[in-house]
C-alpha cells in the first residue's frame, strides 16, 4: 500500500501503523493479546468483536465517548468538520441560552479523536473518519432504539417500507414537489429538515401545541405513543413527516429534524473538560499528618484487638462461607464500632494475610503465623503492610449486608465480595487527593463527578461478577467507601491526603514508613493506677506491658488514653494463665507511676485466696474442695440445678456435664474454680496460642487481562508483523496451489531442491508446514543449512531461527521479487 493511498479497511489502517502505535493499541486493549494474533487481519477482526469493543468503550472518558457517539449518528465516513459541528452546533442557537464552550470543544477534540484512534475504534483520514462497525451498532440509533445521544433514526431508516402514496402525502403537506420515486421523496424530505431556512419557515407555521410536542422529544427519547385519533397538533406533525410511524401506536422524531431543533448538536451538554475538584476545607498540612498518624495507630490497635478476640479459636465458618451476622455483631460490640466498620477491619485483616480459616474439620477463623511476624515489626512497618494490602485488595467490605443476584445475603469473609474494579478505583481516588495542594480536603461530590466523567460507562457491571446483583453505580459506591476507609486507615487525616500516604503511592513502603515513624508516639512502660480499680495508659504501651495488662484487666474506653478496669473476672483470668498473686503485685508495683491502690491489692488477694479452692476434673466431671461448707453452699444454690450435682464424698461433688461447662457454670455463680488434670495438677490456660497453618493472603481478582509489559508487547508486535508478512507473501507458483490461502504442494524432491537453492542464494521461500500435533500453517523462511533431512532457516513468521523436518513440509514456493521480506 502506497503512503498516499487512504486505508480501505481497519486492517489496512492498522498495517500502516508503526510498531510503537501497535504496541499502544495492545497496551490499551490487552484482551487482544489472548492469544497473540497471527497477523494484522486477525488483530483487526478481534478488535471489532462485540465483547472487545464494549470493553474499549468502557475505558473512554466522557468526551471521548461523546465523540464516538457523534460519529455514530454521522454518515460513514464523516469528515472532521462534520464531527466538530455535531459537537459544537452550527452557531444558530437552540433557544436555551447555553454556553456550549465551542472553543473548549475545538481544543479537546483532537485528543479525544487520538484516543479513539489509539484504541482502534476510529480509523481513516481526517476527511474520511470511520467508526468501527460494532461501535456504530452499539451507539447509533435504529428503528428499535434511540442512541445515547437521544437521537432517533434518519428519515431514510424511519420511512423504510412506507408506501409511495403516504410519502407523496407527506411531501404535499410539507410543501415539497411531488415525485413518484421513493428514493427521491425520502431525499427531498431529508433535504428539507437539514435546510435551516426552509425548516425554520415550516416550523413558523406550526401550532404552538405542536412545538411543545417537539420540545418534549427533541433531547430524547425521540419516541412517543399516539392514539388512533391523534390530537390536531400531533396530526399536523405526522402529516409533514416531523413525526414518522414506527408502529401503529408509536411515532419517532427523525434525526435530521431533531438536529435542526438542537442547533446541530448531537449532545445537549458536551463535556470537553473534566469537572474540577472543589475544596471542602483547607487544613494545616502538619495537622493533617498528625491526625492521619493518630488514625494509623488506631488502625493497628483495632487490628490487634480483633485478632486477640480470636486467639483461642475464632467463630465457625458458615456452610456457604463467611462470617455469620451474629458473629459480626459480636465483633462490632467488642470493638465498639458499627457492623459495617467491623466488616471493614475483618476484611482488611483477611486481605493482609493475618486472618484465615484453620482448615480443621470444624473449620473456624484464627490468626495466621504471619500475624506473629507482623506483631514483631515496628508500628510504621505494620501500617504500611495494612495500607498496601488495602490498596490492592479486590474484596469490598462495603457490600456486606447486601444481596447477590439470587437474593442471598453477602456476608463478611464470604466468597462473593471480590470486585475487580476496586483497586483501580481506590488508586484513582487517592491520585485525585494527591493532585490537590497539601492540606486540601476535596468535596466528595465533585470527586464523584470527576470519576463519572473519566469512566461514564463503568456502572454496576464494572468489576462485578455475573452473580453480584449490583444495580447501582458501583464505581461511585466504591469511591465513597474509599474516602471513608482511607480516613479510618490513616491514609487521610481530617479529610486531606497525608504526606506519608503520598510517599506510599509515589515512593513505596520504605519512604512511607520513614515519614510516619516520627509521628507515632513512643510506647510507654508505665500506667497510672487509680483508686476506683482502673488504670490509665496515657499513650501506647510497650508490647509486653500491653499484653499482660490485657489479660489482667478489661479495656473500658479507648482514645488518646486507654482506661483499663480490674474486675474479679479479669484477675481470675490472669491467675488461670499461671500468674500468682505475688507476681501480679510485683507487676503492678513495677509498671505504675502511682502507688498501687489498696482496693486493687485487696481484690487480687481475695480472688487469689478463692482461686483453685474448688477443683474440677473429669469423671464425667467432679468438684472437689477441702471446705465442706463451700460444697454445701453450692448444692443449696438453685442456680446449680442445671449442673445436676451430687455428693460422692464430703469433699467431692460429681456432675453430669463436661468439665468445661461445669467450670463456666460455677464461675457464673461467682466462684473461682480451677481446672485440674487427671494427675490432680492445676491446668494453666495461657492466652493466645492458636494459629492456623501457614496461609498466604488472598490473591486479588484481576480486572480483565493483565496489562502486558514492554517485553511482551515488543515480542507480540514482532510476531504479528512476521505473521502478516507470511500471510500476505506473494509466491511465483500461485497457480499450483489448490486455492488462495491454501498450503503449497510440491514433491519431496522439488521441496529439497528448492530449499537447497534458497540456502545457496540466501533468498526466502514460502512453505506449508504441519507440526507434530497436525496443525497446518504457512511460513516465510530463509534457509541457512539443509542436511540430515532437516532445514535450518530464519523463520520470518516467528522472527527466529528454527529447524524443520523436511518430511513435515507440504510444499514450497518461491516469493515474488517484490514480496521478499
Give a brief outline of the structure.
The chain is of the alpha+beta class and 821 residues long. The protein has 33 helices and 25 strands. Helix 5 crosses helix 8, helix 13 crosses helix 14 and helix 17 packs across helix 18.
Strand content: 5-15%
Low-confidence stretches: 93-99, 459-472, 734-740
Helix content: 40-55%
Count every beta strand, where a strand is a DSSP E run of 2 or more residues.
25
Distance between the ends: 15 Å
The largest sheet, given as strand count, sense and whether it forms a barrel, is: 5 strands, mixed
Question: For the CA atoms, what is the radius of gyration?
Answer: 39 Å
Q: Structural class, from secondary structure content?
A: alpha+beta
| Sheet with the most strands: spatial strand order | 18-19-17-16-20
Mean pLDDT: 85
> Helical element count?
33
Shape: extended
Amino acid at each position: 500500500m502506497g503512503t498516499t493511498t487512504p486505508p480501505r479497511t481497519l486492517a489496512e489502517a492498522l498495517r500502516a501503523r508503526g510498531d510503537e502505535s501497535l504496541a499502544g493499541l495492545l497496551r490499551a486493549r490487552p484482551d487482544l493479546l489472548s492469544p497473540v494474533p497471527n497477523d494484522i487481519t486477525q488483530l483487526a477482526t478481534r478488535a471489532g468483536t462485540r465483547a472487545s469493543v464494549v470493553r474499549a468503550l468502557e475505558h473512554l472518558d466522557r468526551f471521548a465517548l461523546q465523540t464516538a457517539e457523534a460519529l455514530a449518528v454521522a454518515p460513514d465516513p464523516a469528515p472532521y468538520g462534520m464531527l466538530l459541528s455535531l459537537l459544537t452546533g452550527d452557531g444558530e442557537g437552540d433557544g436555551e441560552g447555553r454556553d456550549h464552550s465551542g472553543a473548549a470543544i475545538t481544543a479537546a477534540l483532537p485528543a479525544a479523536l487520538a484516543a479513539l484512534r489509539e484504541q482502534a475504534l476510529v480509523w481513516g483520514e481526517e476527511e474520511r473518519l470511520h467508526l468501527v462497525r460494532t461501535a456504530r451498532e452499539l451507539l447509533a440509533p435504529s428503528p428499535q432504539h434511540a442512541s445515547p445521544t437521544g437521537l432517533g433514526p434518519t428519515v431514510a431508516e424511519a420511512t423504510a417500507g412506507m408506501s409511495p402514496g403516504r410519502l407523496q402525502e407527506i411531501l404535499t403537506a410539507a410543501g415539497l414537489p411531488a415525485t413518484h420515486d421513493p428514493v427521491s421523496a425520502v431525499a427531498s424530505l431529508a433535504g428539507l429538515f437539514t435546510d435551516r431556512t426552509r425548516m425554520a419557515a415550516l416550523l413558523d407555521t406550526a401550532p404552538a401545541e405542536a412545538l411543545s410536542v417537539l420540545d418534549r422529544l427533541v433531547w430524547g427519547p425521540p419516541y412517543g405513543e399516539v392514539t388512533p385519533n391523534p390530537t390536531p397538533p400531533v396530526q399536523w406533525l405526522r402529516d409533514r413527516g416531523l413525526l414518522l410511524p414506527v408502529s401503529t401506536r408509536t411515532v419517532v422524531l427523525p434525526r435530521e429534524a431533531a438536529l435542526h431543533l438542537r442547533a446541530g448538536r448531537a449532545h445537549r451538554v458536551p463535556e470537553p473538560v473534566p469537572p474540577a475538584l472543589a475544596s471542602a476545607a483547607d487544613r494545616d498540612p502538619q495537622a493533617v499528618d498528625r491526625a492521619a498518624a493518630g488514625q494509623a495507630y488506631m488502625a493497628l490497635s483495632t487490628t490487634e484487638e480483633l485478632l486477640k478476640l480470636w486467639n483461642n479459636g475464632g467463630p465457625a465458618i458458615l456452610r456457604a462461607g463467611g462470617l455469620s451476622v451474629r458473629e459480626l455483631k459480636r465483633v462490632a460490640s467488642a470493638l465498639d464500632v458499627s457492623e459495617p466498620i467491623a466488616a471493614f477491619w475483618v476484611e482488611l485483616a483477611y486481605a493482609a494475610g493475618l486472618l484465615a480459616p484453620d482448615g480443621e474439620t470444624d473449620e473456624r477463623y484464627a490468626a495466621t503465623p504471619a500475624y506473629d511476624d507482623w506483631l514483631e515489626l515496628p508500628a510504621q512497618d505494620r501500617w504500611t503492610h495494612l495500607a498496601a494490602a488495602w490498596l490492592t485488595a479486590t474484596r469490598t467490605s462495603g457490600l456486606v449486608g447486601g444481596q447477590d443476584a439470587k437474593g442471598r445475603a453477602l456476608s463478611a469473609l464470604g466468597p462473593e465480595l471480590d470486585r475487580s474494579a476496586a483497586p483501580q478505583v481506590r488508586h484513582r481516588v487517592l491520585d485525585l487527593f494527591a493532585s490537590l495542594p497539601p492540606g486540601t480536603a476535596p468535596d466528595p461530590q465533585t470527586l464523584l463527578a470527576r470519576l463519572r466523567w473519566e469512566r461514564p460507562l463503568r456502572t454496576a457491571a464494572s468489576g462485578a461478577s455475573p452473580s453480584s446483583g449490583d444495580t447501582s453505580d458501583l464505581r461511585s459506591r466504591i469511591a465513597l467507601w474509599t474516602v471513608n476507609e482511607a480516613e479510618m486507615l490513616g491514609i487521610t487525616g481530617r479529610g486531606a491526603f497525608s504526606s506519608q500516604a503520598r510517599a506510599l503511592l509515589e515512593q513505596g513502603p520504605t519512604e512511607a514508613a520513614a515519614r510516619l515513624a516520627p509521628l507515632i508516639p513512643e510506647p510507654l512502660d508505665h500506667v497510672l493506677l487509680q483508686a476506683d480499680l482502673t488504670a490509665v495508659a496515657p499513650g501506647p504501651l510497650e508490647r509486653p506491658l500491653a499484653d499482660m495488662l490485657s489479660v489482667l484487666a478489661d479495656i473500658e474506653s479507648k482514645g488518646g488514653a486507654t482506661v483499663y478496669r480490674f474486675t474479679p473476672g479479669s484477675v481470675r483470668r490472669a491467675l488461670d494463665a499461671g500468674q500468682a498473686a505475688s507476681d501480679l503485685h510485683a507487676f503492678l508495683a513495677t509498671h505504675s507511676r502511682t502507688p498501687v491502690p489498696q482496693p486493687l491489692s485487696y481484690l487480687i488477694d481475695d480472688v487469689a485466696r478463692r482461686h483453685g479452692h474448688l477443683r474440677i476434673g473429669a469423671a464425667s466431671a467432679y468438684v472437689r474442695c477441702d471446705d465442706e461448707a463451700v460444697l454445701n453452699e453450692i448444692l443449696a444454690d438453685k442456680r446449680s440445678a442445671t449442673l445436676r450435682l451430687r455428693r460422692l464424698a464430703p469433699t467431692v461433688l460429681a456432675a453430669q456435664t463436661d468439665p468445661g461447662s461445669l467450670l463456666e457454670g460455677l464461675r457464673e455463680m461467682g466462684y473461682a474454680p480451677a481446672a485440674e488434670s487427671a494427675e490432680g495438677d492445676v491446668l494453666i490456660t495461657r492466652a493466645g496460642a492458636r494459629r492456623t497453618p501457614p496461609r498466604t493472603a488472598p490473591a486479588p481478582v484481576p480486572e480483565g487481562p493483565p496489562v502486558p509489559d514492554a517485553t511482551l508487547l515488543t515480542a507480540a508486535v514482532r510476531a504479528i508483523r512476521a505473521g502478516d508478512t507470511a500471510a500476505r507473501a506473494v509466491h511465483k507458483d500461485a497457480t499450483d496451489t489448490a486455492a488462495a490461502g491454501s498450503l503449497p504442494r510440491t514433491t519431496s524432491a522439488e521441496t529439497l531442491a528448492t530449499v537447497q537453492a534458497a540456502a545457496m542464494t540466501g533468498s526466502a521461500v514460502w512453505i506449508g508446514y504441519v507440526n507434530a500435533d497436525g496443525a497446518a500453517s504457512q511460513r516465510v523462511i530463509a534457509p541457512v543449512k539443509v542436511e540430515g533431512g532437516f532445514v535450518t532457516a530464519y523463520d520470518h513468521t516467528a522472527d527466529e531461527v528454527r529447524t524443520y523436518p523436511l518430511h513435515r513440509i507440504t510444499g514450497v514456493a518461491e516469493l515474488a521479487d517484490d514480496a521478499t521480506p
